[in-house]
Amino acid sequence: MSTPGAHLPEHPDFLWRNPEPRKTYDVVIIGGGGHGLATAHYLAKNHGITNVAVLEKGWLAGGNMARNTTLIRSNYLWDESAAIYEHSLKLWEGLEEDLGYPILFSQRGVLNLAHTEQDVRDSVRRVEANKLNGVDAEWVSPEQVKEICPIVNISGDIRYPVQGATYQPRAGIAKHDYVAWGFARRADEAGIDLIQDCEVTGFTVDGDRVTGVRTSRGDIGAGTVALCAAGHTSVLLEMLGVRTPLQSHPLQALVSELLKPVHPTIVMSNAVHVYVSQAHKGELVMGAGVDAYNGYGQRGAFHIIERQMAAAVELFPVFARAHLLRSWAGIVDVTPDASPIVGHTPYENVFVNSGWGTGGFKATPGIGWCYAHTIAHGEPHPYVAPFALDRFVTGALVDEHGAAAVAH
Amino acid sequence: MQLIHCPWCGPREEVEFHYGGQAEVAYPDDPAALSDREWAEFVFYRDNPKGPFAERWSHATGCRKWFNAVRDTRTYEFLATYRVGDPVPAVVRRHQEVSA
Ligand SMILES: Cc1cc2nc3c(=O)[nH]c(=O)nc-3n(C[C@H](O)[C@H](O)[C@H](O)COP(=O)(O)OP(=O)(O)OC[C@H]3O[C@@H](n4cnc5c(N)ncnc54)[C@H](O)[C@@H]3O)c2cc1C
Ligand SMILES: [Zn+2]
Predict the structure, then answer these.
(1) What's the pLDDT at B92?
(2) Does A294 lie at the interface with B, CB-CB under 8 angstroms?
(3) Which end of chain A lies in a sparser environment, N or C, as judged by fewer CB atoms within 10 Å?
(4) Pick among B12, B43, B50, B68 to test the A interface (most A CBs inside 10 A)
(5) Any residues with CB less than 8 A from the CB of A62 and at least 6 apart, and which?
(6) DSSP β-ladder status, A193-195 and A52-55
(7) What is the ipTM of this complex?
(8) A64 C-alpha to center of ligand 1: Å?
(9) Adjacent-strand bridge partners of A28
(10) Closest to A219 in 3D by CA, of A28, A50, A392
């Protein structure tokens, strides 16, 4: 095998301008993470809308985009979720070409382990639902798990023995920074202004319409405002008097030191709260569920990591001697049904894209595509229509806890 | 890991506690009179402030009692803990005024 990381491309030179904000734009996107940048790209590419600014309070894609564990899959339970995530996965499959930029998308497959009889029933149900939606999925036995990922402990003697797994071969990982830079470069080439160090601190309003945003770099007029602020959505909408059923939580992840290739796929377990993949350079990348309390501090508590490590070592005894290199947290926005909130707000020219919680990286191209359509037409794209804010009043929830809540 | 001050047991390690979300969300007085929107607000909507937040915690592996806390969601610092029904401590009210 080649040295891990030997095939990584060089770090690129600067890929976008750093323009001064103009007085006004047709569309102002708040938040320069993956979703904001992908939305900008597809606004230009699919709709020819380029008088657009992406405002980022920190550095480009320095929020959850820089902090996530990059798992990409589409094996969600409900039709509404399968539709948007599978749309996204298909876009991932052609994204390198579209962006003309390496993103190191590696379709190495994902195993979602089942540890109890109920897990097994739920998993088999999800496999069948996936197949009906044209998503590649199969149910595999513990022995097949071992064939796909030889370092998984399938012994019956552990606390939560592996009873089998769902397997989606087309799932994978990508290099998150490269994905952001690829979208940023394309948006910039199309003439879209990417403005860093520009925090939105308020709005200017005229009746039912927002006329612009107040920022740390002055007021900017806007024909349409599109939120892509992940964990900060409720803070922003509160300024407009709009309440959302969102809660912001720290979500932690960590990496080991660099190791030789030992882990050929992605393994996730909701029941014991850990998931693992091996990055291109060789680090084991691991995550768990959200920290219980609300928070905006971009850090979490160590006892969560301790629990997650205990689960990891039981499932992968070979990890026992691996050293932890670093850990960090992002701030994710979670909803009561573990599905996103996308579409209209009570202000006719303000759109919201939020609530992707622990799992929105995989949606990046898909939501960028559908959100751009929503902004361009003033109407939700059919793939995001089921995720409207009013579902919490109508009761038409898309309850993805089983497929989404802990795992990514 | 933080030390959290249980109003009954005193300071104990964070792992002994269980988080219960926003405090003081009262069950509706007249449930039958609520509109769908009001039900949605009661069931699904909670505050999500960046700053001091009054929330419920239970001392799950200690006295097992619920209590209220005001915690700053930016720093995670507990500004106060107090028994359910007691007024919000003055130190917290001052802090909220300062950061408002
Ligand atoms: C540890 C961790 C692991 C994860 N693992 C996965 C995974 O494996 N797979 C997966 O699919 N998803 C995963 N996620 C979730 C995923 O990262 C998010 O759902 C997704 O990144 C959210 O969209 P975004 O990229 O636009 O958010 P972000 O990158 O957070 O973008 C939002 C941006 O808005 C900016 N912003 C906020 N407020 C303002 C303001 N007032 N003015 C201007 N800018 C503002 C922020 O600085 C930020 O850059 C993970 C998240 C974390 C934290
Ligand atoms: Zn106690």
Answers:
(1) 65
(2) yes
(3) N
(4) B50
(5) A56
(6) parallel
(7) 0.93
(8) 3
(9) A53, A225
(10) A28
Q: Which of A292, A294, A392 sits opposite B53 (nearest CB)?
A: A294
Residues A393 and A107: beta-carbon distance below 8 Å? no
Superfamily of domain A106-170+247-334: D-Amino Acid Oxidase, subunit A, domain 2 (3.30.9.10)
Residue A52 in tokens = 């657009």
The minimum CA-CA distance between A300 and chain B, rounded to whole Å, is: 9
Alpha carbon separation from A177 to A29, A314, A329 (Å, rounded): 19, 31, 16
Ligand nearest to the CA of A275: 1
**C-alpha to C-alpha distance for A95 and A100, rounded to whole angstroms:** 8
Can you give the pLDDT at residue A406? 61
Å from CA of A304 to ligand 2 middle: 21
pLDDT tens by residue, A360-369: 999 999 999 9
Among B19, B50, B75, whose Cβ lies nearest the Cβ of A292?
Answer: B19
Chain A hits for B48, CB-CB cut-off 8 Å, are 234-235, 244, 246-248, 294
Q: Which tokens is A241 given? A: 């008097």
Look at chain A and count its residues: 408
**Which residues does B contribute to its contact with A (CB < 8 Å)?**
1-2, 14-15, 18-19, 21, 36-37, 40-41, 43-46, 48-50, 53, 55, 71, 73-76
The pTM is what? 0.96
Helical segments of A100-170, H only:
117-132, 142-148
**Contact check, Cβ <8 Å, B46/A247:** yes
- Using the CB atoms, write b or e for A325-348: b if 16+ within 10 Å: eebebbbbbbbbbbbbbbbbbebe
Which residues of chain A lie closer than 8 angstroms to B75, CB-CB?
297
Which ligand gives the minimal distance to the CA of B64? 2
Whole-angstrom Cα distance, residue A140 to residue A163?
A: 9
Going by pLDDT thresholds of 50, 70 and 90, the confidence category of residue A401 is confident
Identify the structural domains of chain B with CATH numbers, from first to last.
3-25+48-99 (3.30.2270.10)
Q: Where are the domains of chain A?
A: 24-68+177-245+336-404, 106-170+247-334
Q: What does CATH list as the number for A24-68+177-245+336-404?
A: 3.50.50.60
Q: Tens digit of pLDDT for each residue in A266-322?
A: 999 988 888 999 999 999 999 988 999 999 999 989 999 998 999 999 999 999 999
In this prediction, residue B100 carries a pLDDT of 45
Who lines ligand 1 at CB under 6 A?
A 30-36, 55-58, 61-65, 67-71, 199-200, 228-230, 232, 236, 251-253, 287, 330, 332, 356, 358-362, 408
Whether the pLDDT of residue A408 is over 70: the answer is: no
Q: What is the DSSP secondary structure assignment for residue A280, as one 8-state letter?
A: T
Q: For chain B, list residues with pLDDT below 50.
A: 100
* Chain centroid to CA A153: 29
Contacts of A294 in chain B (CB under 8 A): 48, 53, 55, 73
